[in-house]
Specification:
Structural class of chain B: mainly alpha
Shape of chain B: elongated
Distance between the termini of chain B: 55 Å
Number of helices of chain B: 6
Number of strands of chain B: 0
Distance between the termini of chain A: 22 Å
Structural class of chain A: mainly alpha
Number of helices of chain A: 11
Strand order of the largest sheet of chain A: 1-2
Helix content of chain B: 55-70%
Largest sheet of chain A: 2 strands, antiparallel
Order of helices and strands of chain B: HHHHHH
Largest interface: A-B, 106 and 99 residues
Oligomer: heterodimer
Order of helices and strands of chain A: HHHHHHEEHHHHH
Chain lengths: ~270, ~170
């Protein structure tokens, strides 16, 4: 496998991933398998690169006090267990199962994007006892409105176990599963969008590390393949972040929906027809 | 009103956060976009999480750990690949790691550096190890913060749990 091809494909994956906000893994893994990389090895390489992209983006938001460290730490207890379980399943799973699972997750993401409604943030009215005990609250300064937004997180008893599921998918398929984490933060725990996305990013890094450790132990992280992929995906994500402001959201959304549909369908078909 | 305001975070991020879908981007970066004015949903009683417990800014520390970790890792991997290319004319490097847990992998790389056995692959290995170490060090720093600075036993236990599981998983082989 030519390293230069891996590098170029990873730049593209990082670019599309950053523009869409879905992360690079969803594009990277199908692309690597099309280049002839074994799907399990593609998953293993992808999850290491997820550490880089998530940590890179999390760093600025944490310093700006937007990310909620406590909520992140609480939920990480669940996601790392999920990621370890997911990665262990991948090691014993058949190739066909992984192709089908990946295809289904991509098509589900397409469905979520298709049905997406833009409702504003609804702060939770009453914080439950568990969430209060867990001190799930915070505030951040919103520069756009020059306001300090105070918020409380709720339904931690539901959010925690659901995050196990998000971690499981992340470990199983080698992706950040950020969209799913954000969905849990938004809909279940009632966090403001900004806190939700940035806290999810912090969690993704640790979750990806848990998954990576399993793949490293299994000898599936090939540094020769991983090195150009990591460099490529971070460079692509960096460029994607810069381009983001110049394209309209609707253009990006439509483009990414087509990408998701094509990649999801081809992964599903390759799994079924294997 | 808030929908029309295009604003980044207070500081520009290296990479856009994952989980922000295309249509969600502005909303996520701008804050509440439910048509209400922010005053209606926000309580102006900001207490910085860092200032609430002394002056130690754990968020700044965590942010810098992540930034330095990722940049160092990228620099190491790139140096390794460029060095290999200059030495052999080959783009890309071929070697595999197996039968090692993370700490053995890390120590092997460091051992080679201390033994002056610099080779491109050592730099690449250390770059990958540095990347994996980044979230681990972040959790370690958070645990020390909750333990000694914030004295929040509940969260010290939570972070200790995460750190224990991560340490265990990094010892897997």
């Amino acid at each position: 496998m030519q390293a230069i091809w891996l590098f170029l494909v990873s730049i593209l994956a990082g670019f599309v991933g950053a523009m869409s906000g879905m992360g690079g893994g969803v594009v990277l893994i199908p692309a690597l398998t099309l280049l002839g990389v074994d799907i399990k090895q593609a998953i293993a390489i992808s999850i290491v690169s997820v550490i880089a992209t998530s940590s890179g983006s999390a760093s600025a938001y944490v310093r700006d006090h937007i990310t909620n460290l406590k909520i992140g730490m609480f939920l990480e207890m669940f996601t790392i267990l999920g990621a370890l379980t997911g990665a262990a399943i991948t090691l014993i799973a058949g190739q066909r199962v992984l192709f089908v699972a990946f295809g289904l997750v991509l098509l589900a993401s397409w469905g979520a994007l298709f049905l997406q409604r833009h409702e504003g943030w609804q702060p939770i009215a009453h914080q439950d006892r568990v969430s209060r005990w867990l001190e799930l609250e915070g505030s951040y300064y919103d520069q756009a409105t020059s306001q300090t937004i105070a918020y409380q997180g709720g339904r931690a008893y539901l959010g925690g176990p659901l995050m196990f599921g998000a971690g499981l998918i992340a470990g199983l398929l080698g992706i950040g599963a950020g969209a799913l984490k954000v969905l849990i933060h938004d809909l279940v725990m009632g966090l403001p969008p900004k806190v939700s996305t940035t806290t999810s990013n912090l969690i993704i890094g640790v979750t990806a590390l848990a998954g990576s450790s399993v793949y490293l132990a299994a000898g599936m992280i090939n540094p020769g393949l991983a090195a150009p992929v990591i460099l490529g995906i971070v460079s692509g994500a960096f460029i994607g972040t810069r381009v983001l402001v110049r394209l309209t959201n609707e253009t990006v959304r439509r483009f990414f929906m087509v990408v998701l549909l094509v990649l999801g369908a081809q992964m599903l078909l390759r799994g079924i027809l294997r | 009103m808030t929908d029309t305001v295009k604003v980044q975070g207070n500081r520009e991020s290296l990479i856009a956060p994952e989980g922000v879908d295309a249509g969600h981007q502005n909303e996520a970066l701008v804050g509440p976009a439910d048509g209400k004015s922010p005053e209606k949903v926000a309580t102006v009683s900001y207490v910085s999480s860092s200032s609430a417990k002394g002056t130690f800014d754990i968020e700044a520390l965590v942010g810098y750990i992540l930034l330095v970790g990722v940049l160092t890792s990228m620099a190491l991997i790139m140096s390794g690949l460029v060095w290999h290319w200059l030495r052999t004319g080959e783009i890309g490097i071929r070697y595999s790691i197996s039968g090692m847990n993370f700490f053995e992998f890390l120590l092997k790389g460091l051992g080679q550096v201390f033994a002056d056995q610099y080779r491109p692959r050592v730099l690449v290995s250390l770059g990958i190890a540095m990347l994996m170490l980044t979230p681990f060090v972040r959790v370690l720093a958070s645990m020390l913060y909750f333990l000694f600075a914030a004295r929040n036993w509940k969260y010290a236990v939570f972070t200790a749990f995460v750190l224990t599981i991560l340490t265990y998983s990094l010892f897997l082989r």
